[in-house]
Design brief:
By secondary structure, this protein is of the alpha+beta class. The chain has a single domain, classed as Nitrilase/N-carbamoyl-D-aminoacid amidohydrolase, CATH 3.60.110.10. 24% of the residues lie in helices and 30% in strands. The strands form 4 sheets. The protein has a 6-stranded mixed sheet. It has a 6-stranded mixed sheet with strand order 8-9-10-12-15-16, covered by helices on one side. The protein has a 3-stranded antiparallel sheet with strand order 11-14-13, with no helix packed on it. It starts with a strand and ends in a 21-residue tail after the last helix.
């Protein structure tokens, strides 16, 4: 099998309440990551704002932008200049009163390949996303970029194996998981370790079950007494961690991956061949009595 190598970049950073400053700082980190050779770069969930969903505040809706808004336009020019593909998670305003937690994929020619809207919307203490976001209504998507076929699943989506399976069945070679996840400042360190390991384990399992590379990009820093745990990482289709970022530091990195490993892995562990699709109808039920 011929090698099909591409450099994957991650940008893990912290945010302030200044959206313009966050955007410009991230642009510098994108440039730095591209200088390391990255061709596909993923940013963290809601990359240029604080994670405002820790509270319900009507004023936060002012942060939202249309899909082709000023941030998209500025980053499109950057992609064309650097010849990179960029995954840009943002707060989307679809129309008056309708908002999504979304990500646009910009191809290396600066054109927007498409937009993904987060499907699974949490509503937990510190993560009041249902107040802000409607769930996505356009399904799971694969974007055929100049450097490979990629899918984007956002944060809470990452806990659902059905989402990654559909992305893989649609042809994704890499699944990106932009994320904003952390723990309360002062939480027990043992519990912190359990939570991080659970997060990494579930994403590694998606890599193995589907024979694809996975890339999780989390924010870091303290916001509203919540420590985002960073720890962004990249795996191969065997679930081996190729790179892991530190927990509390801003980080950018580029790692070379070989997309032909999907074929290698699936020949040896042919999970797709042995799927019993005729037995899976019950999974569409909320609960089976």
């Amino acid at each position: 099998m011929a090698e099909n190598k591409v450099n994957i970049g991650i940008v893990q950073t912290f945010c302030s309440d200044n959206k313009v400053d966050n955007t410009q700082r991230t642009i510098k980190l994108i440039r730095d990551t591209a200088e390391k050779g990255a061709r596909i770069i993923c940013l963290q969930e809601l990359f240029n704002t604080l994670y405002f969903c820790i509270e319900e505040d009507y004023n936060q809706f002012d942060l939202a932008e249309f899909q082709d808004g000023p941030t998209a336009q500025e980053l499109s020019k950057l992609c064309a200049q650097l010849k990179i593909v960029l995954v840009v998670p943002y707060f989307e305003k679809r129309t008056a009163g309708l908002y999504h937690n979304s990500a646009i994929v910009i191809d290396a020619d600066g054109k927007i390949s498409g937009n993904y809207r987060k499907q699974h919307i949490p509503d937990d203490p510190g993560y009041y996303e249902k107040f802000y976001f409607a769930p996505g209504d356009e399904g799971y998507k694969v974007f055929d970029t100049q450097y490979g076929k990629i899918s984007v699943l956002i944060c809470w989506d990452q806990w659902y194996p059905e989402a990654s399976r559909i992305a893989a069945l649609k042809g994704a070679e890499i699944i990106f998981y932009p994320t904003a996840i952390g723990w309360p400042v002062g939480q027990d360190e043992r519990l912190n370790s359990k939570e991080y390991n659970a997060w990494q384990t579930i994403i590694k399992s998606h890599a193995v079950a589907n024979g694809v590379h996975t890339v999780a990009v989390n924010r870091t820093g303290v916001e509203y007494d919540n420590q985002f745990w960073g720890g962004s990482f990249i795996t191969d289709p065997f679930g081996e961690v190729l790179f892991q970022a530190p927990y509390t530091d801003e980080t950018y990195e580029a790692i070379e991956v070989d997309l032909s490993q999907t074929e290698y892995f699936r020949r040896r562990w042919p999970f797709l061949r042995d799927r019993r699709t005729d037995t899976y109808k019950p999974v569409t039920k909320r609960f089976i009595d």
